[in-house]
Design goal:
Blueprint (H helix, E strand, L loop, with lengths): L1 E4 L5 E3 L3 E3 L4 E6 L15 E3 L3 E3 L3 E6 L4 E3 L4 E12 L5 E5 L3 E12 L5 E5 L3 E3 L3 E6 L4 E3 L4 E3 L2 E5 L3 E3 L3 E6 L5 E5 L3 E3 L4 E6 L6
Length: about 200
């Protein structure tokens, strides 16, 4: 099933969203507005509640965030999720609380200026599964924090805790970061983490 949006979010709800085994979705938001007064397209998947994936195949191509929970968490427990975003400051996964990866696979490609693979106002917890985050893009000025903002594989306001699974991050943007957390980073168990940054320094 294909969902195409040229106006606002492709899938949007005030409640929760569940992707279960058997679902197969191709979700696209594209910038094709006809005038300056048209509202630009937004996220591929947007909910105010939790967004939970337990199975299936979901592919998202967006100019805004790929998957965003405005008030709660994003949880991956199975299935395959691929997200490609091209918008400035866009995120493959964005959550007001936590992003939890238990199982399944996430492949994210973010190409906009100061874009992020995973961004949370809470923490990032990974105990299994496979996550691949590829980020590229230029630096932009963030007036809200009066500082420059660059690409990052993972950006959190709280802890990053990885106890299992495989996490691969490659950041090629200017001043790009692999993992950027405001609190503590915990690595344990049989987790496999690879981080490569090759971007130029910020001037």
């Amino acid at each position: 099933t294909k969902v195409l949006s040229q106006y606002k979010h492709a899938i949007d709800t005030n409640g929760e969203i569940y992707f279960r085994g058997g679902c197969k979705l191709n979700i696209v938001t594209e910038d094709n507005h006809l005038s300056d007064t048209d509202e630009l397209p937004g996220d591929g998947v947007h909910a105010n509640g939790n967004i939970v994936m337990t199975g299936g195949e979901v592919e998202i191509t967006s100019v805004g965030d790929g998957v965003q929970s405005g008030d709660e968490s994003v949880v991956l427990k199975g299935g395959y999720l691929k997200v490609t975003t091209t918008g400035e400051k866009a995120h493959a996964l964005k959550a007001a609380k936590d992003v939890n990866v238990v199982d399944g696979a996430l492949h994210a490609i973010v190409k906009g200026a100061a874009s992020k693979g995973i961004s949370t106002d809470g923490g990032f917890v990974m105990s299994g599964g496979t996550v691949t985050l590829l980020t590229e893009g230029s630096i932009t000025y963030d007036a809200a924090v009066n500082d420059l903002s660059s690409c990052a594989g993972v950006k959190t306001a709280r802890n990053v805790t990885i106890s299992g699974g495989t996490l691969k991050i490659k950041s090629t943007g200017a001043a790009g970061k692999g993992i950027n957390c405001d609190e503590s980073l915990y690595l344990s168990g049989d987790a496999k983490v690879t981080v490569v940054t090759t971007g130029t320094r910020a001037l």
